TrEMBL record:
InterPro entries: FAD-linked_oxidoreductase-like (IPR029041), HCY_dom (IPR003726), HCY_dom_sf (IPR036589), Mehydrof_redctse-like (IPR003171), Met_Synthase/Corrinoid (IPR050554). Transmembrane segments: none annotated. GO terms for cellular component: cytosol. Its EC number is 1.5.1.20, 2.1.1.10. Keywords: Cobalt, FAD, Flavoprotein, Metal-binding, Methyltransferase, Oxidoreductase, S-adenosyl-L-methionine, Transferase, Zinc. Belongs to the vitamin-B12 dependent methionine synthase family. The lineage of its organism: Bacteria, Bacillati, Bacillota, Clostridia, Lachnospirales. GO terms for molecular function: metal ion binding; methionine synthase activity; methylenetetrahydrofolate reductase [NAD(P)H] activity. Pathway: One-carbon metabolism; tetrahydrofolate interconversion. This is Bifunctional homocysteine S-methyltransferase/methylenetetrahydrofolate reductase.
Length: 602
């Protein structure tokens, strides 16, 4: 009997946790349980046997973390995977010998997520998945279990790769937090719909992070669009830390009762994740032994249509008109009066967006999002706060986005964020749950569901100075695929800058807001030339300033230069992005007016 035939006739009970149970049973210290496949295979085999004796009929190989995130290299990964599969086979053989008959038991080749946060690129991660799958296939694997996934980025190509080589059964499981979303922002309903439609996925479901109660609360509100097999493998509960050790409460009876409720929803595959033990699986198996398998309620699932009322900024870009964005820096203190006055100056100048940097150079300033709300409410000018990945984890980022959306902020510039300086690293920690692309993907998902009635419009930064322009373009394309609608560049000064941007514009269809940062004195020009990496200020530009210039004389040069730069960029720029030096919004207003006058003459 193959696994599909088995599940059609009856529920499939899986094993419970391996890692947390191994620690509880054999180790006082936190270990990477997968390494024990090579060090202590008999201990891993014994755990498999305990689960089989408890009633599990699908055991997962001890390979969840068998990847280069946790192991030294691919050689160790492959050795660990092979050992893990062989140990599981030995356990099945021993179990059947104990019972004197061949009881249907299945082995799931277990794969956890391999995250890519700029440490590796997409192709490298995909190749690693493929090599792991090839190793399992060489061992005879005919069932694959992908666990604790957060999106479909690698699931689609990897499952297609497996199906090209084998008719293996594939189960894909996703992890959700207590708000009902994956790490990448997908809702449980969204996952259910998309997984149901994937021809290479035989079963989908949910594991880890949630306890049985919360998993049931989310699953009971699910609309199943097909009768594809569904799994549920919740945690034993929510852990606490005692003396540096993660501990789960022993609530096996309660868990089994809630799993009975989950089974009544028509769930086909049931088992446990972190904190569960053979005791949990034994009680689950006993609880369901005489309960008939339930049928899922199949419904038509209508996907909510995304609508957007375009902002003035969006409308200008869509019509091919030049848009004007001006950046203001939040203050270092609680006094925002200068910034508010500057915002009022910009309102009179009819700028399209005011953008606020989020602690550039990793120095603490007033929160850009909260200041953006105040500016928009006081001036009526649309705002675009920068959202940096450096300082907030996924919970704080989501909370901030929800709060700003509530306050009618609809534009964001999503950036990875400047690194913390070496001098501050002992007392200031970076977070980086996301990079800019990952956060864009997350916001894209929020637009599809949470913000579906009023989606946000977000852009990204364009550092056009890199050595390989084609690599820059490729990264821009990845951002565009993640929903990035436009790009803001670094300041442009030279002919070489213009040529590079022209090349980029010719090779990607996107909106580019070209950066202009006026140089307001000889000292300022020298500082930017020598102290700001990646910004090219030529000697010719510096020589247009004198050390003994008055402020008024220097500003006239700044206006002339800015208008000249804008003229050179005019044919490729979809608009201009002005960085305000020393809060001199009056100067920016004069430059914008001068550029507009040049536009009228064209």
């Amino acid at each position: 009997m193959n696994i599909k035939e088995y599940i059609k006739e009856q529920r499939l009970i899986t094993d419970g946790a391996m890692g947390t149970y191994y620690e509880e049973k054999y180790s006082e210290d936190t270990v990477i349980a997968e390494k024990e496949n090579l060090k202590n295979p008999e201990q891993i085999k014994e755990i498999h046997l305990e689960y089989l004796r408890a009633g599990a009929r699908l055991i997962r190989t001890n390979t969840f973390a068998a990847n280069t995130m946790f192991l030294a290299d691919m050689q160790e990964v492959k050795e660990t995977v092979r050992a893990g599969y062989e140990i599981a086979k030995e356990a099945v053989t021993a179990f059947q010998a104990e019972n004197g008959k061949e009881i249907p038991v299945f082995i799931g080749a277990d794969l956890g997520p391999i995250y890519d946060l700029d440490h590796q690129d997409y192709d490298n991660v995909l190749q690693e998945y493929k090599e792991i799958c090839d190793t399992f296939l060489s061992c005879g694997a005919d069932c694959f279990v992908f666990e604790t996934q957060s999106d479909f980025t690698y699931i689609e190509p990897v499952t297609a790769y497996i199906k090209e080589k084998s008719d293996a059964f594939i189960l894909v499981q996703f992890a959700f937090d207590k708000s009902g979303y994956t790490r990448s922002g997908l809702s449980m309903q969204r996952v259910a719909v998309e997984a149901s439609e994937m021809e290479n996925v035989d079963a989908y479901g949910f594991n880890c992070e949630l306890d049985s109660t919360h998993m049931y609360q989310f699953m009971k509100n699910l609309k199943f669009s097909s009768d594809k097999f569904v799994s549920a493998l919740p945690n034993a509960g929510y852990p606490y830390t005692l003396r540096g050790k993660t501990i789960y409460s022993n609530n096996a009876s309660y868990y089994a009762e809630k799993m009975k409720d989950i089974a009544a929803l028509g769930t086909d595959i049931l088992g446990g994740c972190c904190g569960t033990t053979p005791e949990y699986i034994a009680l689950l198996s006993g609880e369901l032994q005489d309960v008939p398998k339930a049928t899922k309620k199949i419904e038509n699932v209508v996907t909510q249509e995304v609508t957007r009322t375009p902002s003035i900024f969006e409308e200008k870009l869509s019509r091919g008109e030049k848009a004007y964005i001006v950046e203001l820096d939040p203050p270092f203190s609680e006094d925002a009066s200068k910034v508010m006055k500057g915002a009022e100056d910009l309102r009179k100048c009819n700028v399209d967006l005011i953008t606020l940097s989020d602690s550039p150079m990793a120095r603490a300033r007033m929160d850009a999002g909260q200041l953006a709300v105040k500016i928009q409410q006081k001036t009526g000018v649309a705002v675009m706060p920068h959202i940096s990945c450096r300082d907030r984890n996924v919970i704080a980022l989501r909370a901030g986005l929800l709060g700003m959306h509530m306050n009618d902020v609809r534009h964001f510039l999503i950036v990875t964020g400047d690194p913390v300086s070496r001098a501050d690293r002992e007392r200031v920690t970076s977070v980086f749950d996301f990079n800019s692309i990952k956060l864009m993907q997350y916001v894209k998902e929020m637009n599809l569901e949470v913000f579906a009635q009023e989606p946000v419009y977000y852009g990204g930064a364009l550092n056009y100075h890199g050595a390989n322009p084609d690599a820059i373009i490729e990264r821009m394309k990845r951002k565009a695929e993640a929903g990035c609608g436009y790009f803001l560049t670094q300041p442009v000064y030279t002919e070489e800058d213009v040529e590079r941007l022209t090349y980029i514009k010719e090779h990607i269809d996107t909106k580019i807001m070209c950066g202009i940062m006026p140089l307001v004195s000889y000292k300022n020009a020298m500082f930017v030339k020598n102290e700001m990496p990646g910004i090219h200020v030529s000697d010719e530009i510096v020589n247009r300033y004198r050390e003994d210039m008055t402020r008024e004389e220097a500003e006239e040069v700044a206006i002339e230069l800015s208008v000249e730069i804008a003229a050179k960029l005019y044919d490729i720029a979809d608009g201009f992005y002005f960085m305000t030096p020393f809060n001199r919004t009056g100067l920016i207003a004069r430059i914008i007016e001068a550029i507009r006058q040049e536009e009228e003459r064209r």
